[in-house]
Amino acid sequence: MSGCGWTLAEVRPVQAGKGKSDELSLYTWTNYVDPPLVEAFTTQTGIRVTYDIFNSNEIMLATFQAGKGSAYSILYPSDYKVEEMIELGFLSELDHTRIDGLSNILPQFQNSAYDPGNRHSIPISWGTTGLIYDADRLNPGPEDWSFLWENLDKLERRITLLDDVREVMGATLRSLGHSYNSTNPQQIKQAYERLVTLKPAVASFNTDAWKEQLLAGDLVLAMVYSADAVRLTKDNPDRNLKYVIPKSGTSLWSDTIVMPKTAPNPEAAYAWINYMLQPSVAAQITQRQYFATPNQAAYDQLPAPLRNNTSLFPPDEILANSERISPIDPKILALYERYWTLLTSS
Amino acid sequence: MSQTAIQNQRSTATDTEFDVELRKVYKVFNGETAVRGVDLGIRRGEFFSILGPSGCGKTTTLRLIAGFETPSTGEILIQGQRVSNVPSYRRPVNTVFQSYALFNHLTVWDNIAFGLRLKKRSKAEIQNRVDEVLKLVKMETFAKRFPVQLSGGQQQRIALARALVNRPAVVLLDEPLGALDLKLRKEMQVELSNLHQELGLTFVMVTHDQEEALSLSDRIAVMNHGKVEQIGSPSQIYECPQTPFVADFIGDTNLLHGKVEGAHPEMLWIVTDKGLRIKVKRAGDGHEPTSGSAVISIRPEKIHFSLTPPSDAVNCFEGRLQTVMYLGTHMHYLVELVSGDQITIMQPNVMHNPPSVETPIYVSWSPLDCLALSTN
Amino acid sequence: MAGQSPPLSKQPSLDTEKVLPKWLEPLFLLAPAGIWLGLLLVIPTLLIFELSLVPNIRPGQVVNPSGLDNYALIFDDIYQKVVLRSLSFAVSTTFFCLLLGFPVAYWIALIVSKRWQNLVLLGFVLPLWTSSLLRSYAWITILRPTGVVNSVITLLSSMTHLTLPPLDILNREPAVLIGMTYSLLPYMVLILYASLEKLDRRLLEAAADLGATPVQTFLKVTVPQTLPGIAAGSLLVFITCLGDFVNPELLGGASSMTVARLIYNQFLGATRNWGFGSALSMILILAVSIAIALLIKYGDAVPKK
Ligand SMILES: Nc1ncnc2c1ncn2[C@@H]1O[C@H](COP(=O)(O)OP(=O)(O)OP(=O)(O)O)[C@@H](O)[C@H]1O
Ligand SMILES: [Mg+2]
Question: How far apart are the first and last CA of chain C?
Fold first, then answer.
């Protein structure tokens, strides 16, 4: 073992195009798996698809870096992760001449801060972060983040928050009138202190497990991503579940598809990108998985009830209030993380 | 009933001469009867032995007294008190186990002090008594060792000391010398006997070594198949066995089976199955058969032999010398009588040239030296 | 390492027929184990150690060991609290496992008839055949506000017209303790059983004979005689608890950060700092190694001197 100079979790580029030409390997989110979509792709292109799944950006990147990354031609990172992976030099630059239908993407998604000009990533879905609650158990329901602090007595260990520093700290910053991406230590401290007072209400920090707990009645409210909330509401029409986007604003997120430099089969990756950009395919994703689509042509194909679903496609004034979580200076991030550890450790 | 209560009673209770009494005690283990109807009275201060072959119920009897087993029926009294409901830790008895059962996590000293500490004796008293008993068993220098660092004989003595230091009313010893070699065993027998005399406690010892029982005991109970066959002093047991089993088990004997032919107030005539007519002097203890089948027991050392027919023809039979065994201090002869019976003879080694094999000889014994026993 | 032990003897071998020098033979025998240990234990541990010397390292960065900053971090108040909580979970779980496990093991080893012993033991060990994740999930369904326990309490309340308070312990420390104790109890019972089974019953009789009540016999003979088993079981439970991630994560909710969860967070969770995670891991490895060394030294049967 050499004393120094090795790189932690190095991913060495493998010669591109090494894989079998009729095989595509994906690494995607648990809730993006949609077999009919995959079957239709294989019918159209003759390319067989295999996929592995993850449930957090962190695990995805860690697995990728641990060496498994070179097995995949397509990955599904979220916006801020795209930025990080570009910086790490993992993503290949996309050849726009080989991509059809990019123009259907809404302008604000074509030129996002995390990847201007879609040089490395194609957005395929977006959403908000908000609160889902059981209206039979919690009446009146929340309209804004501040509801949580105002109803501490009713919520003792009956809510969950996302297991994500930036989302939770950001929402609290927002409830105090600051930015999701605040770099002001004073404001960050203030947010932490406010969160500490919310701690008795928090059963746990999780991103998935809340669904079943909410349905069972153990929780009355959860901080969640819009896609999960809309899907749960649709799947349980008999339950009085409601999703609210807090009035004072929330975070906007998008998930993307990217091709790593180590992709064994770039041909198939481009085929997949083009397939996902097809308006009918993108519309199907929204209809079946309840992800908001950034694809204007797809949006136009959606049935009216979906198009008018404000949980899925919030009105502009809410969007205007909302922010995208963007990467921040590592020193400030360390401060966030320190408070997060304090919060979760106390 | 506490142990001190029993001990206090010890000095005052004179209503019974027995320290331990068993009355019609039975013990059945899942269908197997280990002890069947044992009646025993063990006197205060006595050295009492229970003797019998392996598996006859000796250990079980001792465990019943110690309280590790409860009688299936019958009752046990210690110093006149029924102990059916007294757990072993409240009985004024201490046991020296067949396997020593020393606590291997404690030193020799702590092993011995175990009982005294439980009784909350003062430090000084414990110190004195443990040191004293260590001296008694000649193990003073081993006080700080652990049991695993001792030889079998040394462990044996510690087991003894651990029981004696408590000065119980009754000391129960289960084959205490069983694991020792002959020489050490002899030494320990002497020590045991001395200890018994010095301390004046009641000793109940289980053994299957008859010599040990005969030499140490005041009285012996011979057990067989869970029953007591006979209780008596060593000489009574040896000289006047009351059953063929006792006669056979204690020492060597010649047993001849036969029938009572004639009974006289002083004498019995018995004809053996092979046709020998034997005259027996009656002991008058009521154990002899007066009719029906009988067994004759003749000790080998009580039989004489000569090369010529003896003048007195009572109990005299002709036979042929079959084997001669040289035993050092004794000679051992096996004779086949004309009737076909085989007789063992033991003679002190005094003859300069013993007769050779196949020599025709005559054997004889006095009617005083043979016993007639009932067969059942 | 085992694979590099020094020559046992410097004398030249007189045995000329042997192809190998005498001192090489043991090396050959030890080689498979040595290589195995080297590859799977020593090298990874060294790698973790090297990482632990790099402050604030994240994936993709150059590993450049530069000091003990990560270890200094551990003395931070928050982390002290986390370490203390982990220790107290481990100590309490060990205590409860002992408290519950001893009577059970005693019962199986000394009271249950020989014929049934194995069956009863099997019954107690059976839960080990299920995944630990599954067992923790089972406790969620039992302890949750709408779970089994609370349904029973509600039922009882309605039957007796008493107002029994609901038991709301999921996502709190008692739930973690219950989960950990349940997970590790079978190990404790197994080890204590092995120890009690070897217990010489005659010693119990000897103690009673010398006047010890059952309680005194237990304290003065049974416990000292089974001390190696008690030590082994306790250390095993303690060590496993220190490293347990599943129970605190699933049952502890937002209220029970432990060292294991903290390590997870450093590698895969929200706050990624592989250097600090490695330092925490090294501390855990060290603590466990010390515990095992103690076990090997003092966990052995009888006192020697
Ligand atoms: N706990 C028990 N369960 C079942 N049977 C038993 C038990 N203890 C003793 N026995 C049986 O009772 C009988 C008498 O046993 P005991 O131990 O009293 O014999 P012993 O005379 O002491 O023999 P030894 O000289 O070999 O020690 C034996 O047949 C034995 O198998
Ligand atoms: Mg015996």
Answer: 31
Q: How many angstroms separate the CA atoms of C69 and C78, rounded?
A: 16
Across residues B102-119, what is the average pLDDT?
95
Lookup: tokens for C171 = 């996502």
Q: Which residues are bridge partners to B272 per DSSP?
A: B258
Give the number of C-alpha atoms closer than 13 A to the C-alpha of residue B26, restricted to the C-beta side.
10
Least confident of A206-210, B63-67, B163-167, B178-182: B178-182
Interface contact C230, partner B, CB < 8 A: no
Could you tell me how many CB contacts below 8 A there are between chain A and chain C? 105
**C99 vs B263, higher pLDDT:** C99
Q: Could you say which residues of chain C have pLDDT below 50?
A: 1-14, 16, 301-305
The pLDDT assigned to A6 comes to: 63
Measured distance CA(B291)–CA(B277) in Å, rounded:
15
How far apart are the C-alpha atoms of C252 and C257, rounded to whole Å?
8
Query: Does the predicted interface ipTM exceed a cut of 0.85?
Result: no
Task: Confirm if B20 and B170 have CB atoms less than 8 A apart.
Answer: yes
Tell me the mean pLDDT in the region A323-335: 86
Residues 6 or more apart whose Cβ sits within 8 Å of residue B227:
B36, B37, B38
pLDDT at C5: 45
What percentage of chain A carries pLDDT values higher than 70? 94
**DSSP characters over B202-244:** EEEEEES-HHHHHHH-SEEEEEETTEEEEEE-HHHHHHS-SSH
- Using the beta-carbon criterion (under 8 Å), do C205 and B101 form an inter-chain contact? yes
List the one residue out of A52, A18, A14, A47 whose CA is nearest residue A32: A52
Which top CATH class is C73-133+170-298?
mainly alpha
Are the C-beta atoms of residues B207 and B50 closer than 8 Å to each other? yes
Sign, Cα dihedral of B207, B209, B213, B219: positive
* Closest Cα in chain A to C85: A345
* SS3 state of residue A47: coil
Q: What is the pLDDT of residues A170-211, one digit of tens each?
A: 999 999 999 999 999 999 999 999 999 999 999 999 888 899
Interface touch A163/C64, C-beta < 8 Å: no
A69 or C111, higher pLDDT = C111
pLDDT for res A7: 62
Task: Decide if B319 contacts B360 (C-beta within 8 A).
Answer: yes
Residue A114 CA to residue B167 CA, distance in Å, equals: 93
Q: Mean pLDDT of all residues in chain B?
A: 88
Ligand 1 atom, smallest distance to B32 CA: 5
Strand partners, A74: A26
Instruction: Give the number of the atom of ligand 1 that is nearest the alpha carbon of residue B62.
Output: 18
Percent of the residues in chain B that have a pLDDT greater than 70, as a whole number: 95
C188 phi and psi angles, rounded to 5 deg: -60, -45
- Cβ-Cβ contacts under 8 Å for B203 (sequence gap 6 or more): B46, B47, B48, B170, B171, B173, B192, B196
Ordered domains of chain A (ranges, CATH): 23-126+254-312 (3.40.190.10), 127-252+321-345 (3.40.190.10)
3-state SS assignment for residue C170:
coil
What are the domain boundaries of chain C? Answer: 73-133+170-298
Mean pLDDT (chain A) is: 89
- Å between A68 CA and nearest CA of chain C: 14
Ligand 1 and B63: CB distance under 6 A: no
Q: What's the CA gap between C237 and C241, in Å, rounded?
A: 6
Q: Would the pLDDT of B13 be above 50?
A: no
Give kind and range of the element (H or E) at residue A111.
none
